[in-house]
Amino acid sequence: MRRVGYTGASDCGTEYVVTVNVLKRVGIFLLVLAATCAFYMGYRQLFLSTGWTWPFKVDQYAMPRLQDIVSRLWEPAATEQPPLAQLLVQRALFTAREAAVGFAIGALVGIAIGVVFHFSNLMRRGFQPYVVGSQTVPILAIAPMVVIWLGGQGLPVWMPVAVISAFLTFFPVAINTLRGLDSTDPRKLELMRSYAASEWSTLWRVKFPCSLPYLFSAFKVAATASVVGAIIGELPSSIQDGLGGAILNFAQYYSLDPSALWATNIIAALLGILFFCIVAVTEHFVVRRAPENVA
Amino acid sequence: MTSAAAVSIRNVSKTFGKGGTKALQNIELDFQPGEFVSLIGPSGCGKSTLLRVIGDLVEPTEGEALIGGKPAHQARLDRDYGMVFQEATLMDWRTIEKNVSLPLELMGWAREKRRDRVRELLELVELTGFEGHYPWQLSGGMQQRVAIARALTFNPSLILMDEPFGALDEMTRDRLNLELLRIWEATSATVVFVTHSIFEAVFLSSRVVVMSARPGRVQKVVEIDLPYPRTTETREDVHFFELATEVRELLRESHSGRDAAPEGT
Does residue A7 sit at the B interface (CB-CB below 8 Å)? Predict the structure, then answer.
């Protein structure tokens, strides 16, 4: 699909404007990144030299040097092993697969729940409390059951983790699907009624497209939640190949090697940001709306 | 009384809510095929509600509306009428072509046939070349022309219009009035047109139904005996002003009655 936001303005200035906008965004991003790093290092230096201890005492465990964290990536993960960066990328790819499958399952289940609740008040009243309640159950508490249910069914070992991740992602999607479908412009519905359009036609041709902005807001929340869900899901599932395993491992050796955990956390954050960006870019191409409404 | 009246409104009353506002009271009207009828009245007189009763979008509390002798509900299912609202109500995510062809899609027309029909209609409303544009790239007047084209796609014998030009500026409105008459003459459909512009009602219609408010009743039906085709000169005709004055005075009567009573709803 193509970006339609600019098709109307076919004047030659358009491309120039787009390029400038992209450059501006990249510039702002780099500026903020540099400022954040500078703040971290400045804060660290200030507290080290003054010896202030409030809110916490700064030393190499509380706040490792930034350059140590970065250079740690190129050092061996453990003795006689490839660099930490290589290990973390492998782990991240493993976790990414769990998260992606979890996101897909969660999105489908969430949309289905939203549609059912939209059409049936009875179902909505009856089941909404349980949907909300499901989110108050800690993932760590349901993980063993999921592992047992899905184990030994010929499914990949990481499948239970994907399901745990889906458990976190379906909720925002369900809530926003419902909200999007409920908020369809009543005039558009009246128009469809005047054509004697079927419920299905109205859902597919009007309500769904109208709720796409809501749906994508949910996908953005769900994208990052799916990564967190996958990492947390790995912990009780005793899966060692993902970022969750790496975090658990490096957490145990934190007092010896704090930079390794910090580096792992940065990789995990980057994975979440990557997921978010994929959704944002997809939205950019799928949701067609007037330029003044583009967020 | 002809049985083949394009629209027949039989003793229609509508009350909203239990013991609530009486929007319409005992409306009796018959529109002949090919007529252009305007409904005019103060806000709250139920003219939009009456239009929706004809289109089976609002259920009357009493009485019934018939379209070509059929109950309104059946007529809606048979897609006997096209509707145009005050807002163009176009789908932002569809191109102009796809917006106009929406009703045809619902009716299961083949892609090729749809494209040909859309081309014909865009030519009729003078929007050829805008097929690939999106609604927000068009002015308000152009959007409303798209909505008219959409209402005409399946060649309905009746067109219901709810203040279609109410949100447009006066100059655009005047131009679209002329265009609408041209389209109407080209299609020979019956038009029921809700407006609160006296000049618009008199200029367009063969008959103007003047309504009064709270409850909505038919005050009088005014015959507009100005010859078609009407042109910009019609607007300067002495008789045009006489008729407009008559409608205005009828509206004032219904208004003064309302102003005497304390403000309802």
Answer: yes
| Contact check, Cβ <8 Å, B57/A190 | yes
Pick the CATH number of B1-80+158-164+189-265 from 3.40.50.300, 3.20.20.120, 3.30.390.10, 3.60.20.10: 3.40.50.300
Among A187, A188, A195, whose Cβ lies nearest the Cβ of B106? A195
Query: How many C-beta atoms surround the C-beta of residue B50 within 10 A?
Result: 28
- Residue from the list B57, B82, B91 with its beta carbon closest to the beta carbon of A193: B57
CA distance B211 to A50: 84
pLDDT tens per residue, range B43-75: 888 899 999 999 999 999 999 999 999 999 999
Q: How far is A135 from chain B (nearest CA, A)?
A: 34
- The CA distance from A215 to the nearest CA of chain B, in Å, is 15
Strand partners, B218: B211
Instruction: Tell me if B31 sits within 8 A of B192, measured CB to CB.
Output: yes
Q: Where are the domains of chain B?
A: 1-80+158-164+189-265
User: Can you read off the two tokens belonging to residue A194?
Assistant: 């005047």
The CA distance from A5 to A238, in Å, is 47
Contact B91 A206 (CB under 8 A): yes
**pLDDT, tens digit (0-9, with 9 covering 90-100), for B154-202:** 999 999 999 999 888 999 899 999 999 999 998 889 999 999 899 999 9
Kindly report the number of other CB atoms within 10 A of residue B55's CB atom.
24
Report the amino acid identity of residue A30: L
Per the rule left: phi > 0, alpha: psi between -120 and 50, beta: everything else, A291 is: alpha
Q: 3-class SS at B76?
A: helix
A197 contacts in chain B (CB < 8 Å):
106
* Helix (H) / strand (E) containing A142: helix A139-150
Statement: the pTM of the whole predicted model exceeds 0.80: yes
| Domain assignments of chain A as residue spans, ordered by start | 1-63, 68-293
Q: How large is the ipTM? A: 0.89
Question: Euclidean distance between the first and final Cα of chain B, in Å?
Answer: 37
* A168 contact partners, CB below 8 Å, separation of at least 6: A102, A106, A135, A139, A222, A225, A226, A228, A229
- The pLDDT, as a whole number, for residue A151 is 80
Place of tokens 């219009």: B161
CB-based contacts of A211: which residues, under 8 Å, 6+ apart?
A: A176, A177, A179, A180, A181, A183, A184
A-chain residues near B102 (CB < 8 A): 195, 205
Interface test with B, best of A11, A195, A207, A287 (most B CBs within 10 A): A195
- What pLDDT is attached to residue A10? 44
Architecture of A68-293 per CATH? Answer: Orthogonal Bundle (1.10)
What pLDDT does residue A291 have? 56
**Rounded Cα distance, B145 and B122, in Å:** 9
Asked if the Cβ–Cβ distance from B76 to A196 is below 8 Å, we say yes
CA distance B101 to B104: 5
